[in-house]
Specification:
Length: about 400
């Protein structure tokens, strides 16, 4: 079987070697594993643009190079017309020769592919929509158009559209999907699954529980880019307010980004050095230990697809506190497995204090989060991909 992957995500060619964005490369290993040949239809970069890239570890049959274009303004749309026409022709030829078409959405190139795939109703197809599928969310018109075409069973046939979350009124084309971080082998090697201890808590057992005593330290964690979209300053302000109210709290922020200096200045000016630490980028193993040693993860993000950090935190008994964007409310069981942020400081602080004071409620959230998130291992992810390509 010849698998064709069409995406706006670039292949990066450096020193004669091909690279992909690291999480994307790891996932594509699994798709390539169940194909006889794999072809990419995407842009090619020949310089490092600060992406977290990894060398491609599987054989790439061919690459159809596409030119990137921008449609955010009228002048850019005019410039994009000839580039889009050439891309349409190349995408048509590539699809014609492939046995299975896999679209990576959303994106400008994916939008073109959404139109072209209509001409091939009998070819098996999949589309992974990595953005926010929520039909009520405010999104660019090109994203809404892609979602409309993909979910229209008259225009889009013989395709499974993989989306994050479960959405009422979805068409038969749409399949709720997920992503995963840990394999069953890693779980056994890196952490004690059955008897995980989390600070003063013992999670995952229904027997005697150690009590969370008033005055015990409550440990918070943030994992992500230090950018406006992730709102790390709001994370700091939440913990700062808890500190002002007499709670014994600490916060570690894992990640780098353009807001680092601004955050450092805020921490210094407000004398928060003793309770808040910027840890920078960390290894997967260090982040895992961070989940295990923290009581709460905070993610007040403005935009997400499937935020892996929320699932990862729950995996290790760390209760998420997150904004209700995309499928986050679904992941957190609408508040049963985590705290849904209102993004009003006093209200969110009040919610957190309620959970801190109620150890039984915290235990219930942590346990239900573990039970739910442990469904989603990389082993199951691979099995689902295999099924998609064999159907």
């Amino acid at each position: 079987m010849k698998l064709l992957v069409i995406s706006s995500a670039p292949i990066v060619e450096l020193n004669g070697k091909l690279h992909l964005y690291a999480p994307y490369e790891k996932e594509m290993q699994l798709w390539a594993k169940y194909a006889d040949a794999i072809q990419f239809c995407c842009p090619i970069w020949r310089e490092d643009k600060k992406l977290l890239i990894a060398p491609i570890s599987f054989k790439v049959d061919t690459i159809v190079a596409l030119q990137e274009f921008d449609i955010t303004s009228f002048s850019n749309k005019l410039k994009a017309l000839p580039l889009a026409f050439v891309a349409l022709v190349k995408i048509f030829r590539a699809i014609k020769q492939a046995d299975h078409i896999h679209l990576r959405c959303p994106g400008n190139i994916a939008l073109l592919a959404c139109f072209v795939q209509i001409l091939f109703p009998n070819k098996p197809k999949t589309a992974k929509y990595a953005g926010n599928w929520d039909p009520k969310s405010q999104q660019p018109w090109s994203y809404r158009l892609q979602k409309w075409i993909l979910s229209n069973p008259f225009l889009t046939r013989n395709m499974q559209v993989l989306v994050y979350g479960e959405w009422e009124g979805s068409s038969k084309n749409v399949k709720s999907f997920f992503t995963a971080t840990y394999s069953e082998e890693e779980i056994g090697r890196l952490g004690d699954w059955e008897n995980l201890r989390l600070g003063e808590f013992e999670i995952g057992r229904q027997g005697d529980k150690e009590k969370w005593r008033e005055g015990d330290e409550v440990r918070f964690l943030f994992v992500g880019t230090l950018s406006k979209g992730k709102q790390p300053l709001y994370v700091i302000q939440l913990v700062e307010e808890l500190h002002k109210k007499g709670k014994k709290v600490t916060l570690e922020l894992y990640g780098e980004g353009v807001l680092r200096k601004e955050l450092e200045l805020y921490i210094t000016q407000n004398k928060l050095e003793s309770i808040i630490t910027l840890k920078g980028n960390q290894t997967k193993e260090t982040v895992l230990k961070g989940y295990q040693n923290s009581h709460f993860l905070i993610l007040p993000s403005k935009s997400e697809g499937w935020p892996k950090v929320v699932a990862e935190a729950m995996f290790w008994g760390c209760v998420p506190i997150a904004s209700p964007v995309s499928c986050v409310s679904y992941m957190m069981g609408n508040g049963n497995r985590g705290i849904v942020l209102q993004e009003v400081l006093n209200q969110d602080v009040s919610q957190i204090i309620t959970i801190i004071k109620d150890q039984d409620l915290y235990q219930k959230m942590a346990f239900e989060g573990q039970t739910w998130s442990r469904q989603f291992t990389t082993d199951k992810f691979e099995a689902e991909i295999k099924k998609l390509l064999r159907e």
